[in-house]
């Protein structure tokens, strides 16, 4: 009997079990997935439509995704898996590169394009760009085929070249015939026939060589490759309803600070401050308006990661008119409160953020026809939620205060300060509620588990003591600030909603 090493045995067992689960799950999910895909109209319909899928599919799909994510740890040899993880940052750089070059928008506009055409359109180095695109194809960011498709601009260019060549040949032939007499014409005809006879074998041999070269060409050969859009790169297009291009650009800005993680862990200092020469992320943005503008654009696109519909479904009071006012604390340009007010006619809204951001939000609302009609029900407030009395005061019982992805930017001590200012703003209005929308660190088997713990490292790099938190940690912050946690509501998205009431 052959002795099988225990790690190999368990790896094989895990692989077989996971494969069975994946096949079963795919069988269950295939029908609705196909329906959703057919309705996507080349990847440009709103992904929030998927929020209407039953919870069962979310749970099963999330579990299977997590199993697939963990499978590599048990199937691949450990050295190979570790080296694969070490290469992860190169994958991110491929994504950042095609995003910054605007490749998805070009593919959206022109259809599949060759590397040469994309290099000409972006001003990039052709060979380097093609190699990046090849890597992107293995990540599902672009399709890669060999001569199967060409963009309309390339087709037009080739047709024009063929027409010009044919016209040039006809003109040359006409000139030769005009110069030669009748006898010369017959002689010229014989010469052309002889040349044609010699060309035919040469053309046949060249065609045979090309066909043989095509047979030898592998799927990763760059010669003759054309690249197209996928559902992943589609969300990097400006006109996609769930565009996250600005979010990806923001993440690329943080690669430099991330390189200081090791020194930060050793010294206990914030990696961002080590990278920036001592400035905090907030001070850096305050000093450079372009950084702040990039940050605000990214936060506007944040709804693609935390869809407002998912939060509204989890907390219907935000849109059913039962709350007299919704106060969005740290609400940026007001995408969330605007979406809430657009779904009802009675509730009012208050948007609170730093003075510069609040002023930009008011200007943006005036320029937006859809939001301009809501401005009669919204007030804009500028200030810092660390300043006493700056948060808008509650005007009636039943109002809802929202902290959406705010506390994870701050340490425990600063988070308690923010929560206490919100509590002071609520005052004696005992029926008011606080909703905290955050990436709560919960079940390790949820499909978003990796994204949440990675987000915690992101907070560590940017702000040091800032963090993603567990349910118990949120409970502790609330109790220290004059609130009581009522419940934690899951959503069909990356984040959960922590609901609290004043005590």
Automatic annotation (TrEMBL):
State a single Pfam family of this protein.
Methyltransf_2
InterPro entries in the record: COMT-like, COMT_C, COMT_dimerisation, SAM-dependent_MTases_sf, WH-like_DNA-bd_sf, WH_DNA-bd_sf
Gene3D superfamilies, alphabetically? Vaccinia Virus protein VP39, Winged helix-like DNA-binding domain superfamily/Winged helix DNA-binding domain
Q: Where is the signal peptide?
A: none
Residue ranges of region Disordered? 146-216
Sorted UniProt keywords = Membrane, Methyltransferase, S-adenosyl-L-methionine, Transferase, Transmembrane, Transmembrane helix
Q: Does the keyword Transmembrane helix apply?
A: yes
Compositional bias, Basic and acidic residues, is annotated for 167-180
List the biased-composition ranges (Low complexity): 154-166
Q: Where is the O-methyltransferase dimerisation domain?
A: 84-146
Name-wise, this protein is: Hydroxyneurosporene methyltransferase
- Organism equals Raphidocelis subcapitata
């Amino acid at each position: 009997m052959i002795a099988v090493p225990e790690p190999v045995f368990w790896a094989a067992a895990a692989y077989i079990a996971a494969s069975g689960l994946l096949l079963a799950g795919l069988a269950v999910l295939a029908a609705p997935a196909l329906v959703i895909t057919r309705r996507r109209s080349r990847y440009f319909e709103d992904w929030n439509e998927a929020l209407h899928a039953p919870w069962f599919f979310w749970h099963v799909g999330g579990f299977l995704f997590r199993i697939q994510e963990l499978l590599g740890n048990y199937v691949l040899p450990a050295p190979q898996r570790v080296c694969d993880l070490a290469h992860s940052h190169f994958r991110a750089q491929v994504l950042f590169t095609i995003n910054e070059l605007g490749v998805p928008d070009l593919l959206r506009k022109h259809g599949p394009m060759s590397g040469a055409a994309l290099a000409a359109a972006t001003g990039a180095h052709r060979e380097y760009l093609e190699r990046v695109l090849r890597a992107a194809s293995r990540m599902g960011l672009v399709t890669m085929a060999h001569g199967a498709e060409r963009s309309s601009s390339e087709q037009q260019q080739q047709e024009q070249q063929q027409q010009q060549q044919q016209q040039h040949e006809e003109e040359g032939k006409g000139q030769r015939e005009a110069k030669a007499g009748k006898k010369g014409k017959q002689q010229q005809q014989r010469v052309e026939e002889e040349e044609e006879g010699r060309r035919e074998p040469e053309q046949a041999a060249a065609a045979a060589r090309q066909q043989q070269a095509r047979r030898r060409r592998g799927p990763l050969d760059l010669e003759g490759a054309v690249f197209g859009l996928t559902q992943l790169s589609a969300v990097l297009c400006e006109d996609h309803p769930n565009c996250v291009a600005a979010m990806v650009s923001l993440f690329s800005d943080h690669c430099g600070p991330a390189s200081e993680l090791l020194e930060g862990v050793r010294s206990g200092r914030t990696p961002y401050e080590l990278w920036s020469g001592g400035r905090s992320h907030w001070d850096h943005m305050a000093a450079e308006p372009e950084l702040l503008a990039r940050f605000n654009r990214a936060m506007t696109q944040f709804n693609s990661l935390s869809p407002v519909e998912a939060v509204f479904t989890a907390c219907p009071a935000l849109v059913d008119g039962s709350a007299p006012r919704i106060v969005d604390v740290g609400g940026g340009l007001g995408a969330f409160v605007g979406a809430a007010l657009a779904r009802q006619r009675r509730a009012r809204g208050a948007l609170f953020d730093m003075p510069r951001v609040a002023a930009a939000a008011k200007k943006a609302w005036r320029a937006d026809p859809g939001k301009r009609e809501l401005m009669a029900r919204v007030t804009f407030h500028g200030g810092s939620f660390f300043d006493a009395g700056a948060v808008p005061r509650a005007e009636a019982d039943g109002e809802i205060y929202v902290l959406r992805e705010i506390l994870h930017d701050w340490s425990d001590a600063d988070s308690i300060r923010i929560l206490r200012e919100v509590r002071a703003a609520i005052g004696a209005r005992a029926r008011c509620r606080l909703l905290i929308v955050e990436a709560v660190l919960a079940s390790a088997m949820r499909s978003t588990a990796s994204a949440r713990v990675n987000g915690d490292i992101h907070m560590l790099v940017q702000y040091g003591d800032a963090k993603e938190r567990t349910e118990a940690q949120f409970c502790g912050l609330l109790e220290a600030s004059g609130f009581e946690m009522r419940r934690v509501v899951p959503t069909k998205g990356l984040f959960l909603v922590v609901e609290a009431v004043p005590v």
